[in-house]
Every structure is written in C-alpha cells, then in structure tokens.
Amino acid sequence: MSSGTFAAYRPILIAIAALAALPLAVPMLVGAGLFAGPNTFYNLMIFILIITLAAQGWNIAGGYGGQFSFGHAAFFGTGAYAQAVLQTRYGVNAWAALPVAMALGGLVGAVIGLLAFRARLRGSYFALVTLAFAEVFRILANATPITGGAAGTLVPLRIGFGQMQFDAPAAFFYLALAFVAVVLILNRLLERSRFGAWLVAVRENEDAARALGVDTLTVKLKAITLSAAITAVAGALYTQKFLYVDANIAYGAWISVEALLAPIVGGIGTVFGPLIGAIALIGLGEAAKTVIHAAFGSAVPGVDLVVYGLLLIVVIAFAPRGLIGLLRTGGGR
Amino acid sequence: MLEVQGLTKRFGGLVAVSDVSLTVPEGSITGLIGPNGAGKTTLFTLVSGFQTPSTGRVLFRGDDITGRTPESLAVLGIARTFQIVQPFAGLSVLENVAVGAYLRCPHRAEAMAHAEAVAGRVGLTDLGRPASSLTVAGRKRLELARALATGPRLLLLDEVLAGLNPSEIRDIIPVIRAIRETGVTILMIEHVMQAVMSLCEHVHVLANGRLIAAGTPAEVVGNPAVVEAYLGHGAAGRLQKGAAHG
Fold it and tell me: How many structural domains does chain A have?
C-alpha cells in the first residue's frame, strides 16, 4: 500500500470517526434544546443512516453507472420483507436472515436488470420500468398472505443481541453506521478498480465503451445486482429498527424517491454524495417540521416534502454536481 | 490480417455497402477513400461489429468474425476510433485512456502506467484535465490513445485527421507512422489526401457502396473512375481535354 492509496481512504476514515464520535455530543445537543432527548437524536440518526445505505445502493447503479432507477423500493422492500418474514414465519435468526435478505434483494436486482438491460432500455424507459416493477411488488405484497397482506408483518419485540434488537439506542446506531462505513470503503475500492472504470465508461458513452472492449451488459448487470443488494440491507435494517413492515413502507414510492434524491442532492457518483444528501434532506426536513410546529403550535403534514422540493430546486439551479460539488469547486478529487 | 468478402449492408431499400471485398495485409497502412456517403463508415461499423452485414463475411487472421460484438472484437485485437469523437466527457484525459488500458491490465497501477505511456506516444499532455476541455485536435489524439491502449493488432481509424489544420495534420502523421512501426496494422478512412499519399501503401476507393478502384495512392488518383466519383460523370474526360488545351 503506497501513501497515495492511503490518502484516497483518509477522508472516509475521518468521516466514519466523526460519525462514531457523535454520541459524545448527545448530552450537549439535548442540553441545547435541539433534541427532546437522546432517543430523538438516535432515531433521527439511525433513520438518516438507513436512508444513506439505501441511497448508497442507488448511487452504484445510478450514480456511477448512469442507470437511473426510479424503483429501488423493489430492492428495499424485498430486504425489509425477507428480514421480517424469515423471522416470523420460518424462525430464522435475525443475524442469519440479514445476508439472506441481502442476497434476495440482489437476486431481484439481477432479474429486473436482465429483463431491462437485455431489452436495451435506457434513460427514462429504464426508470419507468423499474418504477413499474416496484409498484407490482407493492400490490402483490399487499395481497399475498405470506407478507401479512394489508395488515403487514410485525416482528415480535425480543430485546437481545442475538435478536439484533438492542436496549441501548446507541447500539443500533453503531450497527447502521458499520454498514454505511463498509459501503463507503467499498465505493472507494470500486472507484479505483477496473470494474468501476468500466461502469463509469458505460455511464458516459456506451458505444465508446464497447469499442474499448467493455461488455456493457455484464457491467450493468453486476452494478444493478450490487446496488440492489446494498439497498436490500437498508430495508432489512429498517425492519430491525421499527419491527414492522407493510407494503406501503417496504415497496412505497417514498423510499425510491429518498434513495435517488439523496445522491442527487449530495453529489451523484461520489463516495460521500449519498451520506451528505441524506443528512441534508432528512435533517432539513426534521428541522422544518420542528420550526413549523413551534410557530403554528401544531404539525403541518407534508412540510418535509416541501423542503425536499425546495432543496432539489436549489441544488439543481446552483450546484448541479450536488452539495459535494460546492465543497470541491476548483479542487481535484 | 483482415479480409472482407462480398460484404453487403442494406438499410431497407438503400444498399449502403454493396458486395465489397478487400484485404488488409499484416503490417500495412491501408487507406479507404471515397466521396461523402460512399459507405466507408458503414463498412467500418460492419467490420468492428457495431452492425451485422446483410450478406458477406469478415475474416480476421483467418477466423470468421462476422457478426461478433464490438467488445469481443476488442478482446481479439481490433480497435476503432469514431469519426464523431466520443470522449467520456466526465472523466480526465488519463482516465479516458485508462478505460482502454484496463482491457489488458486488470490492476489499477499497471493500467494507469500503461495509459500514461500510450498518452505520451500520441502526444497528449496535461493528462489530469477533463476530457471535455480538449480542443478538436486533442480529442482526435484522445480517440487514438484510447483505441491504442486496448493493445490492438488492427486499428481502424475513421477520419482521425478531419477537422485538423495543416500544422496539426503534419504533427499527427508521424504518430500514426510510429504506431505502425510497433507492429499494428492500420486501416484508415481519410479525406485528407496529403495524409493518404504519405501514409498508405494501398488504397481502396468506395463510391455509392461499391469498390470502384484499388491500388497505390498514385495509381488511384490517376484513375478516371475515381476522378468521376468525386467530380461527377464525364469529369475525367473534361479534365484531360482541359489539360490538352492548356
């Protein structure tokens, strides 16, 4: 390992260390009145990390590979349902269910990818087909008994490390952070690999990539499989955190939107884009809810969506390369 | 090295390439010329696998490669450039070339070193800047570098000199000659006759999808059929008369 190699990973290690140190600041943040209590803080952070993970998945196919999916809910939901159903119906341990959920998500990604890419779907056609798949999954999950139908699936509360349910809220925060950290490093490895170079070449110009010997179908299939598997882990973590899924949570359009909006706002096709975007979107959404609540004395439903819309317009108008692009203006990578 | 046998490509009622047969000897620089719309680029897309011929065969080193995909042909050792340059605009110059280099070098360090060496050979400098900031001449060199980085045995160059000014053309001719010196066979489509005359040993002339002449550059430019293809029916005769009167 040369010093140049280490330099490429240093910002990632610093970011992970900073996030890991956040719990130290909890007493201060609560004391300053920013959060009602430690649990409020942890719930927000865990939610941000789960969305980050889903967005990191999207960013591999969408950001690096240029295959804009509008249906990552299909993978998130498969992970979420697999995690819930394996435990409740088949008595599988939560830790053992997680890799299965990930594999199933990857499989769904591979199948959708095979159908879409073999049919040479690109751009908005690919986006529409993925959206349609996610909707079909949502309707099926709402109707079939194995998923609990419209009632959803409730994972019984059994606190214990062996059940991946923790008494201390910090524990789940660190679990989610560990997954985000692994994917941050994985992303950098990808950027510095042959597969990553070919994936970006596919995004930039498929014909030119083919002329240089890039098997674009295989590259895209690998990317969507990896992308789906990572987003499925986010779904599985969601199940473990909230211990409940139904079709509208698991396969709802909301998660497809979060998964693609976070990288676009943060910086598409970059290592930190999904993380920065998720923090900005969800952080500002929560802040807006709190401010509105304080101002009007009651919650105004949907105000976070208004914030998303505004943030998206501002980013597209003033920072087409995302928030990370603002930090980097003039600098190299 | 390359043998094209009776290649025909129809687009509906239009016959873009009609029963073309030609060979490119190993180690040569062979030219393919002809007026606009003659079917030169279509012939390239057939040879490089981007389209499949309606009839006919393409042989590379004796093996039938008709209908194989561009990516598998690149692995075999056939690389092409595009007439309309296709840089990966979001990547740096070096990263562009590295995409080609990764074909033979799976590891990053090797691929980057190879890409740098190839970029140097074609005279690209300032490799860290975005490919989108290159001038036309720079983009042409980038096309050449990327194709060359895949380690081809046969290089198909589609008008790499078009759009360059005379001094830029003078600069790039030795680069192409040097590529041939390393054992790469070249088939080039070119309109710039100065380059064709100085580089090619053998030239094929395409007009209206048909091969109308072949020979050394000097033979071909003196061929009345070639003159008529460029200047219109009867032009050769008028030119001769004009020369006699003058």
Answer: 1
